[in-house]
Specification:
The complex is a heterodimer of chains A (about 400) and B (about 280).
Chain A lengths: L3 E10 L2 E2 L1 H10 L5 E2 L10 E3 L19 H10 L4 H12 L4 E6 L5 H9 L21 H10 L5 E4 L5 H14 L5 E8 L3 H9 L20 E2 L1 E8 L11 E10 L12 H14 L8 E3 L6 H14 L5 E3 L2 H4 L6 H15 L1 E2 L21 E2 L4 E8 L3 E9 L14
Helix pairs in contact in A: 2-5, 6-11
Chain B lengths: L3 E12 L6 H8 L20 H6 L2 H17 L8 E4 L5 H13 L6 H6 L4 H10 L5 E5 L4 H16 L3 E7 L16 E9 L16 E9 L12 H9 L11 H8 L4 E8 L2 E7 L4
Parallel strand pairs in B: 2-3, 2-4
Antiparallel strand pairs in B: 1-5, 1-6, 4-5, 6-8, 7-8
The chains are: A alpha/beta (about 400), B alpha+beta (about 280).
């Protein structure tokens, strides 16, 4: 495919607000996980909770849109000057030529949970939560389109943990077809009872900070995050210089089970191969892979085997869930930003909290981070329902590609 | 650059308790048959394993029914094409269950209901039931959900030159949630879209109908200024609307009614704060 310019990006996770905080935490091996202080009912686990959501000054005219997910989305969208970059893109292209494609799994179900926990004696929601736009899965897309001034198509992708990876694929199609000139992609997912007690019911939650790919790993740590990227066609009038390129994407289904991955990684493999094919890349050209690496027994075993069988040893791979926790519907964008930061900074993170590696892992798996020039990075996202998405990004400085009009695919 | 997308509608599925099936729905629309006087019980999702059929949520059952019938009409194997599932609110009864349980006994949350609570549950069951490893997505855009699903399905068809399945559905809100989120009954509609305009490409050998060309374009501004050109289409949708009153997926009915009529139609459906999807449906035969 013709690569798309990634002209701005940002991520806000448990390690802090914005790109600098994320990169610093990755370089310093500083986790954002802490003992669960979120649920009223005790649940022994570690969580990646974002600071500053409750304290955020919330405009009175947005009172009917006030919920944790929208607050986190706004905290994230205003980091790194991202909202300003969107405003500039709307000015360049026309606001109706800019799309918003947002990924989320939780949406604002936390607001519905809160309403049920505080029902009046009349059985009604408390007045502050009696707003239809808070209790529907497009809530945050609806909010952000207004907040960012986007007049083009506004849609939410909700495919569990692949949501905010698939937004890149949907936006790329819209841009390729000339339906729009720029697209804001990304996602926001917040901690809530549904996911904490839901994953607990599946016995997938660890009592300790998650240890991806460690033979003794015993489950996931949940987290919350918001992240965004601005995609533009390199040939669109007024398009800004690319800071990186979206080179390819691959989507597939496992056709196996609602909550367990295919034992041979069939869907993961298909998505990987599709992304490489679309990007025109051979596996050996990839420098770094940010893995789904949730620290569940099954995911990590299957994913490690797929990577070991498809990639040569010099390709580095790691999971960053040990820093952020599994941010579910936001995991795709957070890990896309980790890749984009690796391309720009030359730092490839390792795998925090893992002390040794599962025997299924090949030589690609890295426990320690490293500084190394990185031109091609992949990120893998796999969700419930067997929903898979792999993205391929290229650096602005990729040899032979940094020229007006974009790189050759 | 203002693009248009040319696709052809090759398969149609519809299921609602008082419009159980596309053929009957067409007959009802044309006055050739009466709708069932009382709502039918929900369909059994034959695609699923027998143990899964009974406990499948209504969302999954009706979405899979409409999807299977649309593929059947198009003569296309479900496992061979990507799918776009669109639902305004997802599984409202499961949301009610989750919120109720979390407010009282969070540790007793059912793991099955939890994994069925994802917005892509119907998409997941569809790919599992049909053995489909193609891409599958699940979307929502509040009142613009059907239009955004149609736009993504047509985009996939044209961008990648493949037939695409679109499935749009909503069910009734339940419990305290129903006091703020409004949806009643059950409604699922499905379309199989082929890439290319009228007369393009080859049709599946088994295709029993002549696909109708549908041209999509994104236009600036809200859709209020777009007139319906199809004669009687508005009134016809109104007649159906009485049988599926209050369902959140009602916005799909304008295109479905236009498909049930033979005339060419021009429709406008909003997809954003300041843009709409313009739909030009060619006349049928």
């Amino acid at each position: 495919m013709t690569p798309l310019a990634v002209s701005a990006w940002t991520a806000t996770t448990a390690v802090g607000r914005g790109n600098a905080a994320l990169l610093a935490a990755l370089e310093q091996d500083r986790t954002g996980l802490r003992p669960n202080d979120f649920t009223t009912e005790p649940l022994e686990t570690f969580i990646g909770r974002v600071e500053g959501i409750e304290a955020l000054a919330w405009p009175a005219h947005w009172a009917h849109l006030d919920c944790r997910n929208n607050r986190l989305a706004w905290l994230g969208a205003t980091a790194d000057g991202f909202a300003d970059a969107v405003a500039a893109a709307c000015a360049r292209h026309g606001a109706h030529r800019v799309a918003l494609v947002l990924g989320t799994s939780t949406a604002s179900i936390g607001a519905s949970e809160e309403a049920y926990a505080t029902l009046g004696t009349d059985g009604l929601f408390p007045p502050a939560l009696r707003h239809a736009e808070l209790h529907t899965p497009h809530s945050t897309g609806h909010f952000l389109a207004q907040a960012l001034g986007i007049d083009g198509p506004s849609v939410t992708v909700s495919t569990a943990c692949s949501s905010s990876a698939k937004v890149f694929a949907q936006a790329e199609r819209m841009l390729r077809l000339g339906l729009v000139d720029a697209a804001v992609v990304g996602g926001a997912d917040t901690l809530c009872g549904s996911v904490l007690f839901g994953f607990n019911s599946l016995e997938l939650v660890s009592r300790t900070p998650c240890r991806p790919f460690d033979p003794a790993r015993d489950g996931i740590s949940l987290g919350e995050a918001a992240g965004f990227a601005l995609l533009e066609r390199a040939d669109a009038p007024g398009a800004r210089d690319a800071r990186a390129w979206l080179l390819g994407h691959g989507e597939s289904s496992d056709a196996h089970h609602m909550s367990s991955p295919h034992p041979d990684g069939l869907g993961a493999r298909l998505a990987l191969e599709a992304a490489l094919r679309r990007a025109g890349l051979a596996p050996g050209e990839v420098d770094y892979i940010n893995l789904h690496g949730t620290a569940s027994q099954m995911n990590d075993r299957v994913e490690a085997a797929v990577v070991a069988s498809l990639f040569p040893a010099h390709v580095g791979a790691s999971s960053t869930k040990g820093w952020t926790g599994h941010t579910l519907g936001a995991a795709g964008i957070v890990e896309a930003v980790v890749c984009l930061l690796a391309l720009e900074s030359g730092f490839r993170p390792g795998t925090l909290n893992a002390r040794s590696l599962d025997p299924a892992c090949g030589p690609q798996l890295r426990l320690a981070g490293e500084h190394a020039t990185t031109h091609i990075a992949l990120t893998q996202s796999f969700g419930f329902g067997g929903n898979n998405c792999v993205l391929a990004f290229g650096s602005a400085a990729r040899p032979g590609t940094a020229r007006p009009g974009g790189p050759r695919a | 650059m203002s693009a248009t997308l040319d696709v052809r509608v090759a398969g149609i599925g519809l299921w609602s308790p008082r419009l159980p099936g596309w053929a009957l729905a067409c007959d009802v629309l044309h006055g050739r048959a009466d709708a069932p006087a009382t709502p039918l019980p929900r369909v059994s999702p034959a695609l699923l394993a027998p143990t899964e059929r009974r406990r499948a949520p209504d969302t999954v059952a009706i979405a899979l029914e409409a999807a299977a019938r649309a593929c059947e009409m198009a003569g296309i194997a479900p496992a061979s094409i990507p799918s776009v599932f669109a639902s305004t609110h997802g599984d409202l009864p499961i949301s009610d269950y989750m919120c109720t349980t979390l407010a009282s006994t969070p540790r007793l949350l059912s793991p099955t209901r939890f994994h069925n609570s994802v917005h892509n549950a119907a998409a997941g069951y569809w790919t599992i039931g049909t053995g489909c490893v193609q891409a599958s997505t699940a979307l929502t855009a509040w009142g613009d959900t059907f239009a955004c699903g149609l736009l993504e399905a047509a985009s996939q068809a044209v961008a990648d030159g493949t037939p695409v399945l679109l499935v749009a559905y909503d069910v009734a809100a339940k419990g305290p949630l129903a006091t703020v989120t409004h949806s009643e009954g059950m409604l699922a509609a499905a379309l199989v879209l082929l890439p290319g305009g009228p007369g393009t490409g080859s049709l599946p050998a088994a295709a029993p109908i002549r696909p109708r060309g549908l041209r999509l374009a994104l236009r600036a501004g809200r859709a209020g200024n777009v007139q319906d050109a199809g004669h009687g289409e508005r009134a016809a949708a109104g007649a159906w609307a009485g049988l599926v009153a209050g369902n959140a997926m009602l916005p799909c009915l304008r295109l479905m009614a236009a498909l049930a009529h033979g005339e060419a139609a021009l429709l406008g459906l909003n997809v954003g704060r300041g843009c709409h999807l313009e739909l030009r449906l060619e006349a049928g035969t």
